[in-house]
Design brief:
Layout (H helix, E strand, L loop, with lengths): L1 H10 L1 E2 L4 H17 L5 E6 L2 E7 L5 H17 L3 H10 L4 H4 L13 E6 L3 E9 L3 H16 L1
Protein name: UPF0303 protein AS594_21770
Organism: Streptomyces agglomeratus
Pfam families: HbpS-like (PF03928)
């Protein structure tokens, strides 16, 4: 699992990421979620600026709170929230027990992925909340793969 998650991050590096790209990626995520009737909230940020947000039917304010907690993990570790949580589990512990970070502020659960730009590194995040964590992560990865091809 770790190898696959690391490979995703190495593969999904973008040549650039503009405001228009955020709209395109966000719209793609909305379309994929609607096709699946997924009750998710979607958030895309560049730095601290929110460039895209959408809450689909069935999502709630709790999903926005999860987005914030997962996004903070990506901002802190510069890796997907799912990869960070998986790294802790691979060491026989949990993020909550070993990271020494406030669990009300940070959640290493799947669904937030770094937006990485060639030559610049991690410049933002794309986050989904509302499904089981592996499915949140998979939805983001699928959208980034389609967006980058």
């Amino acid at each position: 699992m770790l190898t696959e998650l690391i490979a995703q991050e190495r593969r999904l590096v973008l040549p650039r990421f503009t405001h228009e790209d955020a709209w395109t990626l966000g719209s793609l995520l909305v379309d994929l979620a609607r096709e699946r009737e997924a009750p998710v909230a979607i958030d895309i940020r560049r730095g601290t600026q929110q460039l895209f947000h959408c809450a689909l039917p069935g999502s709630s304010a709790d999903n926005d709170a999860w987005i914030d907690r997962k996004r903070r993990v990506v901002e802190r570790y510069a890796e997907s929230s799912y990869l960070v949580g998986t790294r802790f589990r691979a060491k026989g512990t949990t993020f909550e027990d070993a990271a020494r970070l406030d669990p009300d502020m940070y959640a290493a659960h799947g669904g937030s992925f770094p937006i990485t730009v060639e030559g610049a590194g991690v410049i933002g995040t794309v986050t989904v909340s509302g499904l089981p964590q592996a499915d949140d992560h998979a939805l983001v990865v699928e959208a980034l793969e389609r967006f980058s091809s």
